[in-house]
Design goal:
By secondary structure, the protein is an alpha+beta fold. It has six helices and 13 strands. It is globular, with a radius of gyration of 16 Å. InterPro entries: Endo/exonu/phosph_ase_sf, Endo/exonuclease/phosphatase, GPI-anchor_lipid_remodeler.
Length: 251
């Protein structure tokens, strides 16, 4: 496995392809140490952040704007309007369009949704979807199908979906998505595998998934990356982030 410092940096290559760093992070509604959270995000130097459990209630827009500002990013889409999933980006990304999607709600269970955007990096276009799937297996599987339908409906040559699947690699929803998309960790493991809070049972339930044609250069939990301290990871939220470097062809 490569050294953590070897994850490729964001760049535009001679053929017009781009290397994009995508971070997926469940932030537990910013109920923990928001300064530590911002430090972790900023240290990962992402171009795109797919957030789960973004603030959804009182003054949620101000909280989202504060997180973006303190992390050196800008708000793109989602939050309360997607029932939790949210997308942030660096100024490197040009936002072509966004859409927040609310999924069919089962009485007694949480409302779920997708935050989506089409981003352009020079000559490369990338569809992005942030998700947080159900804790119930039968509902989660249906949401996995809707996720694939949504990516197809975005009508872009290349796409990435990232989020908290509430499912493990041996689960049927995880398997459904990994059969249709590249599982970043399984394709090019880098960093730490398991995404649950340090000290909790080891599980990999947070992912970055990429469509065919996107080259995964490395994907995993950035524990040990310079400036990403274990203390901040423990303080920021109850999940660990997943960072991926992806090469996206010009389109």
């Amino acid at each position: 496995m490569p050294d953590l410092q070897d994850l490729p940096e964001s760049t535009t290559e001679a053929d017009g392809s781009v290397i994009v760093r995508v971070l997926s992070y469940n932030i537990r509604s910013m109920r923990d140490d928001t300064a530590a959270l911002a430090r972790v995000i900023e240290a990962c130097r992402p171009d795109v952040v797919c957030v789960q459990e973004a603030p959804r209630f009182f003054r949620w827009r101000k909280a989202a704007a504060r997180l973006a500002r303190t992390s050196g990013l800008v708000y793109v889409s989602g939050g309360a309007t997607a029932s939790g999933p949210m997308i942030l980006s660096s100024l490197r990304a040009h936002v072509e369009r966004t859409e927040d999607v609310l999924l069919p709600r089962t009485p007694g269970l949480h409302q779920r949704g997708f935050a989506t955007a089409v981003l352009r990096f020079g000559r490369a276009r990338l569809g992005v979807l942030s998700c947080h799937l159900s804790v119930e297996d039968w509902e989660r599987y249906g949401q996995g199908r809707l996720l694939l339908d949504q990516l197809s409906a975005m009508d872009v040559p290349y796409a990435v979906a990232a989020g908290d699947l509430n499912d493990r690699p041996d689960g049927r929803t995880f398997g459904l998505l990994a059969d249709a998309l590249q599982d970043g960790w399984a394709t090019k493991p880098w960093g730490r595998e398991h995404t649950t809070r340090l000290g909790d049972p080891l599980q990999r339930i947070d992912v970055v998934l990429a469509s065919e044609g996107v080259e995964v250069l490395g994907c995993g939990v950035p524990m040990g990356l310079p400036r990403v301290s274990e203390r901040d990871l423990r303080a920021a939220t109850d999940h660990l982030p997943v960072l991926a470097a992806l090469r996206v062809p010009a389109s």
